[in-house]
Amino acid sequence: MGSLCASAQTPQQWRDSVSVLMEQIRLHPNSIDLRLRKAEANINLMQWDYALEEYGRVLRIDSRNLAALYFRAYCYGKQHHYDLAKADYEAFLTIQPQHLEAHLGLAHVLQKMERKTDTMDELNRIVQLFPDSAQAYAARAAYETELRQYDVALYDWDEAIRLHPGDASLAVSKVDVLIRMERRKEAREVLDALVAKGTPRGVLKEWYDRCK
């Protein structure tokens, strides 16, 4: 799935794009590409209703259009229509089951719906499907941390760090869990290792303070 490049253009440039695309769509109303491009511009302007309208029209032309399903789910999530977002993510995954971001989107929506068992089932499924993804382990670890399941969260943060050792934010998340578990000495050791690898100590001051 192509990602949205919100920083590539200014709001005025996105507004100009919408104007141009609306004229092109008027001439070519069944062009899926034009409608997807307009919807992307709408998203970058946070015009969720207009984006949803375009994705709906695309899906009336092609009910299995993956880009429209994925980004319509994203828009529904932004509007807190979690049941509709869930339906679109599930429709997407029926067509393309091996898609990490769609699985993560579904897990996020389930979490927002406060469906704890379903959320954990989905996060477990993500780790099974993508065992080499630090992002998969980190997503499950973050939810386990929220549920105060610190022992399993610590394992998952370690797995995420093993898979992506250069990401200091993962190590800091592990530090957070260690502090919550009153294991401050180990937390400080993780911070010292980050400093040794080049992370400025000042950036970690808040965490060092919490280790006292």
Provide structural commentary:
With 212 residues, the chain is an all-alpha fold. The protein has helices at residues 11-27, 32-44, 48-61, 66-78, 82-95, 100-112, 116-129, 134-146, 150-163, 168-180, 184-196, 205-210. The longest helix is centred in the N-terminal third of the chain and has 17 residues, at 11-27. The termini are far apart. The model has no long low-confidence stretch (mean pLDDT 94).
Quick description:
The chain has 212 residues and is an all-alpha fold.
How is the topology of this model organized?
Elements: H1 11-27, H2 32-44, H3 48-61, H4 66-78, H5 82-95, H6 100-112, H7 116-129, H8 134-146, H9 150-163, H10 168-180, H11 184-196, H12 205-210
Q: List unreliable stretches of 5+ residues.
A: none
Order of helices and strands: HHHHHHHHHHHH
| Tally of separate helices | 12
Proportion in β-strands: under 5%
- What is the alpha-carbon Rg in Å? 21 Å
Number of strands: 0
Question: Could you estimate the helical fraction of the residues in percent?
Answer: over 70%
Instruction: Give the overall pLDDT as a whole number.
Output: 94
Class from secondary-structure proportions:
mainly alpha
Query: Between the first and last Cα atoms, what is the distance in angstroms?
Result: 45 Å
The biggest sheet amounts to: none
Shape: elongated
